[in-house]
UniProtKB/TrEMBL annotation:
SUPFAM superfamilies: EF-hand (SSF47473), FAD/NAD(P)-binding domain (SSF51905)
Family as reported in the entry's similarity comment: Belongs to the NADH dehydrogenase family.
PANTHER family: EXTERNAL NADH-UBIQUINONE OXIDOREDUCTASE 1, MITOCHONDRIAL-RELATED, NADH DEHYDROGENASE
UniProt EC number: 1.6.5.9
The protein, known as: NADH:ubiquinone reductase (non-electrogenic)
Residue span(s) of domain EF-hand: 381-416
Length: 539
C-alpha cells in the first residue's frame, strides 16, 4: 500500500504541476525504488539543475599542425573546451630533423606523427578537419575553410567554423624578397617533401658528375652546393650536407671528391646572428675548418638555372655570378597570404607578422591568439610606462623614489619587462641599485633618491635590449605549451591572478607573460659542434 500511495502521489504531482518534464522510476533488485524528476523548463529555483551535457563549452579553433599548434594540443587538458583543429597537413613533422632527412641520416617516416593519433590520446574533446583556412573573420568570430587543395575536391565544399577562441598557428612562407628566379630554381626546406626533394637532387648531382661525358668544369658546377641564409635552417643543412658528403658520398663517388664545394651566403655580418656572439663565432670558425665557404655581406640579386648572382656590400655594388648545381634557399620567413589579409582587417598593415602582446593575444583581438612563425611579440617598452612605474613604486607619494621602494616592485618589473634583467646582465650590474646609481654617480647606493626625470635617465637604455625571438621550432613549441597552460588555468586565474602588477591599472595580470628559454639540442648542429655550443652557452 505504501508503494501504491507513493505512485498515486507522484501521479497527482503531474496533474498539479504540468511543467514537470519527466518521471523516472528506478527499481532495485531488492524491490525498493526511488523516483527522480526535474523541471526541464524552469531556469530558477532551488531544484533547477542544468545537466552537464547541456552546459555550453567554449569552442577553441586551432589553425595549423606545426610546432606551435601541436604543442598547444598536446598540453591542453581542460575539459571545458571543445577543440577543432584545421590544417591541410594531417601530420606533425619534427622539422629540426629535416636537414637530417635531406642526407638520409633520418628517414622521413621517423619524424612525422599523424594528428589524429595525437588528438585521439587527449582527454578533452578534440576533432580534426583536413582543410585549409583561407579567411579569418574576427568581427563574426568565424574562420572560412575549404578542402585540402591537393585533394580531388573541386573547392565547392567551402565551409565556415565558429569559434570562441581562435589559435592561429599556421606558420609562414619562405621569404624570397621577390628575388628573380628563386621560386623557379631554388629548393626550400620547410616540409618533409622539401627534404626528400633535396636528397634526390643531391644524389642526382653526384650521378651526373660521374658521367664520362662531363668536363671537369661542368663537374665543378654540378657539385657546387649553395646555401642562401645563415640562420638556423641554413647552418644546420650546410653542416649536415658537409658530413653526408665527406662521410658517405665520397666513398660511393671517389672521383667526385675533389670537385665538391659547399658555399653559405649570408647578407648580414655574421651567421646565426640571433644567438649569442660566442655561438656565432664558433660556428663560423668550425665551418672555416671544415672547408665550407662562408661569404658574409653577400646579397643574392638573381638566380638562373645555372648561376646565382650576388652583390657584396662595400664592394661598389659589383655583381658576381657564381655557377652552382643546387641552391637551398633559407633566408627567413615571409607572411602567409591569409595572415596578410587578416592583418589588413585589424589595421596591422606595416608588419611582416601578426603583432601580439606578451600573453600571445593578437593586438586588438582579445579572443584570438597567434603563435609560432606567423606572429611576433610586441614587447612593451619600459619608457612607455615609465611614469606609471614610478607612481606605482612611489608608495608614499613623496615624488622621489628610494632604492628600497624600487626593490619592492623590481620582481614585477623584471617579469613584465624582461629587457630590464637583460640590461643588468649586459652591463654586468649586480643589482638594481647599480642601475639607479647611474643617475646619481656621487651618491652612495643606500642613499639614492630619484625624481621622475632622474628615474627616466637611469632606465633610458633598458629598451635597447629588446630583440625579436628567432623563428625556430623551439620558440613555437614553448609558445604552444605556454598558451595551453594558460587555457588549462583560465578559470582559476580569473579568481586568483598569478601575473605581475598592472602598472597602468589596478590589480595583477591573470598570467605571467611568455618567456622564451633557449635550450640547445643536438639536432641543431653535428655532435662535435653541439658539445662546444653547449659549453659556450653555459659558460
Amino acid at each position: 500500500m505504501n508503494g501504491l500511495s507513493f505512485f498515486k502521489r507522484a501521479s497527482r504531482a503531474f496533474d498539479d504541476y504540468p511543467t514537470l518534464a519527466k518521471l523516472i522510476v528506478v527499481c532495485t533488485v531488492s524491490g525498493g525504488g526511488y523516483v527522480a524528476y526535474a523541471d526541464a523548463n524552469s531556469t530558477s529555483g532551488a531544484h533547477a539543475i542544468a545537466p552537464v551535457s547541456e552546459i555550453r563549452k567554449k569552442k577553441v579553433v586551432v589553425v595549423g599542425t606545426g610546432w606551435a599548434g601541436t604543442s598547444f594540443l598536446k598540453k591542453l587538458n581542460n575539459p571545458s573546451y571543445d577543440v577543432q583543429v584545421i590544417s591541410p597537413r594531417n601530420y606533425f613533422a619534427f622539422t629540426p630533423l629535416l636537414p637530417s632527412v635531406t642526407c638520409g641520416t633520418v628517414e622521413a617516416r621517423s619524424i612525422v606523427e599523424p594528428i589524429r593519433s595525437i588528438v585521439r590520446k587527449k582527454g578533452v574533446n578534440v576533432s580534426y578537419c583536413e582543410a585549409e583556412c583561407f579567411k579569418i573573420d574576427a568581427d563574426n568570430k568565424k574562420v572560412y575553410c575549404r578542402p585540402n587543395p591537393d585533394s580531388s575536391m573541386n573547392g565547392k565544399e567551402e565551409f565556415a567554423v565558429d569559434y570562441d577562441y581562435l589559435v592561429i598557428a599556421m606558420g609562414a612562407r619562405p621569404n624570397t624578397f621577390n628575388t628573380p628566379g628563386v621560386v623557379e630554381h631554388c629548393n626550400f626546406l620547410k616540409e618533409v617533401e622539401d627534404a626528400q626533394r633535396i636528397r634526390r637532387s643531391v644524389i642526382d648531382s653526384f650521378e651526373k658528375a660521374s658521367l664520362p661525358t662531363m668536363s671537369d668544369e661542368e663537374r665543378k658546377r654540378i657539385l657546387h652546393f649553395v646555401v642562401v641564409g645563415g640562420g638556423p635552417t641554413g647552418v644546420e643543412f650546410a653542416a649536415e650536407l658537409h658530413d653526408f658528403v665527406n662521410d658517405d658520398l665520397v666513398k660511393l663517388y671517389p672521383a667526385a671528391k675533389d670537385f665538391v664545394q659547399i658555399t653559405l651566403l649570408e647578407a648580414a655580418d655574421h651567421i646565426l646572428n640571433m644567438f649569442d656572439k660566442r655561438i656565432t663565432d664558433f660556428a663560423e670558425k668550425k665551418f672555416h675548418r671544415d672547408g665550407i665557404d662562408v661569404k658574409l655581406g653577400s646579397m643574392v640579386v638573381k638566380v638562373s638555372d645555372k648561376e646565382i648572382s650576388t652583390k657584396v656590400r662595400g664592394n661598389g655594388g659589383e655583381i658576381t655570378a657564381i655557377p652552382y648545381g643546387m641552391v637551398v634557399w633559407s633566408t627567413g620567413i615571409g607572411t602567409h597570404p591569409v595572415i596578410r589579409n587578416f592583418m589588413q582587417q585589424i589595421g596591422q598593415t606595416n608588419r611582416r607578422a601578426l603583432a601580439t602582446d606578451e600573453w600571445l593575444r593578437v593586438e586588438g583581438c582579445n579572443s584570438i591568439y597567434a603563435l609560432g612563425d606567423c606572429a611576433t611579440i610586441n614587447q612593451r617598452k619600459v619608457m612607455e610606462d615609465i611614469a606609471a612605474i614610478f607612481k606605482k613604486a612611489d608608495k608614499d607619494n613623496s615624488g622621489t623614489l628610494t632604492v628600497k621602494e624600487f626593490q619592492e616592485v623590481i620582481d614585477d618589473i623584471c617579469e613584465r619587462y624582461p629587457q630590464v634583467e637583460l640590461h643588468l646582465k649586459s652591463k654586468k650590474m649586480r643589482d638594481i641599485a647599480d642601475l639607479l646609481k647611474m643617475a646619481k654617480a656621487d651618491v652612495a647606493k643606500e642613499a639614492i633618491e630619484l625624481n621622475i626625470e632622474e628615474f627616466k635617465k637611469a632606465l633610458s637604455e633598458v629598451d635597447s635590449q629588446m630583440k625579436n625571438l628567432p623563428a625556430t621550432a623551439q620558440v613555437a613549441a614553448q609558445q604552444g605549451t605556454y598558451l595551453a597552460n594558460c587555457f588549462n588555468r583560465m578559470e582559476e586565474a580569473e579568481k586568483n591572478p598569478e601575473g605581475p602588477i598592472r602598472f597602468r591599472e589596478e590589480g595583477r595580470h591573470r598570467f605571467r607573460p611568455f618567456r622564451y628559454i633557449l635550450i640547445l639540442y643536438k639536432a641543431i648542429l653535428p655532435l662535435s659542434m653541439y658539445r662546444c655550443l653547449a659549453f659556450l652557452h653555459h659558460a
